[in-house]
């Protein structure tokens, strides 16, 4: 879901595969992990770079809507918690960039592709966080949706990606719980505070459903990614799971899911719900969401403003290394 | 285009008495900064008591395509495993 639209080649039938590709597919079918320098089809490598890169970018850009509230947190404890959470997101981005780099793409190249708009990040981060209740809704819904997607990806076929996901999942549950904790507090507060919580749910519900990406029932891209085990569940399966998990949590808070078609379906053992507005989703992906320009602008500015610092530290390191070598030579 | 900070491989000793274990990699200008960054990236929840950092370029790895021949010598020596030998029941634990 942090990688919503990842283009990949169509699934190949066995007859179309080369002997190497057949052996590769058999390794994946046996549940073996693929490691960085081993042979892999070019399509596998490219799709993974896109997917892991998109995921990494989402973690990094995802710091912005929450970072906005660090200085405005209602208590020192909430501030410390939010700070720790946003720091985790930076860490998650770094694990994932490192995983992508094992596929032969450089960190700077990935960032350049983000900054130029060639690579995407999750649509969810192009929505504004207007008040403190949004910190609750983001942790509860956005991180909740992220966990839905990331838990199965721990079993993905590419070793470094799988290991990054395992680390991330260990930390992610803190994120969702701190969000739900904020929602509980607000829902137990004044009527105005509860109204803020409801408003945040209203605004984040459909964008959260969009995080899983459009229905992929007929998508050839998905078929290939699933054969390669770089996608484990369909977008629709994960979205359904998310709704089934979240509805009782909203009921506990005494909040209403903003969907008049929401109804328990005994037959499927899950909730029926309305699809989000997919035209809005494609608009946001295309760069026309409420905060696209602001988010990307903040990333580019941070990169440009940090150039002197990166170069300065590198120059210092080179100078220190030269001095160390000179001292070694002199001692000999 | 500025020069990219070099890549470092990070090894963490999780507890006293255990080996350092590879946990991932990161970019840093020098070894000192690599350790500081590793602390923030890989030990935010008390995961370590010691950190090693090694320039990725300084690591020599065996080639995946030579996996077969490289490890063949041990494959064919099943007698290196204690389970190769049948010890009578009445001897007990050995």
Automatic annotation (TrEMBL), chain A:
<dbReference type="InterPro" id="IPR007814">
    <property type="entry name" value="PaaA_PaaC"/>
</dbReference>
<dbReference type="GO" id="GO:0097266">
    <property type="term" value="F:phenylacetyl-CoA 1,2-epoxidase activity"/>
</dbReference>
<dbReference type="GO" id="GO:0010124">
    <property type="term" value="P:phenylacetate catabolic process"/>
</dbReference>
<dbReference type="InterPro" id="IPR009078">
    <property type="entry name" value="Ferritin-like_SF"/>
</dbReference>
<dbReference type="InterPro" id="IPR012347">
    <property type="entry name" value="Ferritin-like"/>
</dbReference>
<dbReference type="Pfam" id="PF05138">
    <property type="entry name" value="PaaA_PaaC"/>
</dbReference>
<dbReference type="InterPro" id="IPR011881">
    <property type="entry name" value="PaaA"/>
</dbReference>
<dbReference type="InterPro" id="IPR052703">
    <property type="entry name" value="Aromatic_CoA_ox/epox"/>
</dbReference>
<dbReference type="GO" id="GO:0005829">
    <property type="term" value="C:cytosol"/>
</dbReference>
<protein>
    <submittedName>
        <fullName>Ring-1,2-phenylacetyl-CoA epoxidase subunit PaaA</fullName>
    </submittedName>
</protein>
Automatic annotation (TrEMBL), chain B:
<dbReference type="Pfam" id="PF06243">
    <property type="entry name" value="PaaB"/>
</dbReference>
<dbReference type="InterPro" id="IPR038693">
    <property type="entry name" value="PaaB_sf"/>
</dbReference>
<dbReference type="InterPro" id="IPR009359">
    <property type="entry name" value="PaaB"/>
</dbReference>
<protein>
    <submittedName>
        <fullName>Ring-1,2-phenylacetyl-CoA epoxidase subunit PaaB</fullName>
    </submittedName>
</protein>
């Amino acid at each position: 879901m942090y990688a919503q639209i990842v283009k990949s080649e169509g699934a190949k039938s066995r007859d179309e595969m080369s002997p190497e590709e057949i052996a590769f597919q058999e390794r994946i079918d046996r549940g073996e992990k693929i490691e960085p320098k081993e042979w892999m089809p070019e399509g596998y490598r490219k799709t993974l770079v896109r997917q892991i890169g998109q995921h990494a970018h989402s973690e990094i850009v995802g710091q912005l809507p929450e970072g906005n509230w660090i200085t405005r947190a209602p208590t020192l404890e909430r501030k410390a918690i939010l700070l720790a959470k946003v720091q985790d997101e930076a860490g998650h981005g770094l694990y994932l960039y490192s995983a992508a780099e094992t596929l032969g793409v450089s960190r700077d190249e990935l960032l350049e592709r983000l900054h130029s708009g060639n690579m995407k990040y999750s649509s969810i981060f192009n929505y504004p966080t207007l008040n403190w209740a949004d910190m609750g809704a983001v942790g509860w819904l956005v991180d909740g949706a992220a966990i839905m997607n990331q838990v199965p990806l721990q079993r993905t076929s590419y070793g470094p990606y799988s290991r990054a996901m395992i680390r991330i999942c260990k930390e992610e549950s803190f994120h969702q719980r701190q969000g739900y904790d904020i929602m509980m507090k607000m829902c137990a507060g004044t009527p105005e505070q509860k109204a803020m919580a409801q408003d945040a749910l209203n605004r984040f519900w459909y964008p959260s459903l969009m995080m899983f990406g459009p229905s992929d029932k007929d998508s050839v891209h998905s078929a290939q990614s699933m054969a390669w085990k770089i996608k484990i569940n369909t977008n629709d399966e994960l979205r359904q799971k998310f709704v089934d998990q979240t509805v009782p949590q909203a009921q506990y808070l005494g909040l209403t899911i903003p969907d008049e078609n929401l109804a328990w379906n005994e037959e499927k053992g899950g909730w029926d719900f309305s699809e989000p507005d997919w035209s809005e989703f494609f608009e946001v992906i295309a760069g026309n969401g409420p905060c696209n320009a602001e988010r990307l602008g903040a990333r580019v500015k941070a990169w440009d403003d940090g150039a002197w610092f990166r170069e300065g530290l590198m120059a210092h390191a080179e100078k220190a290394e030269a001095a160390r070598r000179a001292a070694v030579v002199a001692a000999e | 285009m500025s020069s990219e900070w070099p890549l470092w491989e990070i090894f963490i000793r999780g507890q006293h008495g255990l080996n350092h274990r590879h946990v991932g990699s990161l970019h840093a200008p020098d070894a000192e900064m690599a350790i500081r960054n590793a602390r923030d990236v890989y030990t935010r929840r008390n995961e370590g008591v010691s950190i090693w950092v090694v320039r990725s370029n300084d690591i020599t790895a065996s080639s995946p395509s030579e996996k077969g021949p490289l490890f063949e010598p041990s494959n064919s020596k099943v007698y290196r495993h204690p389970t190769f030998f049948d010890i009578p029941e009445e001897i007990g634990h050995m």
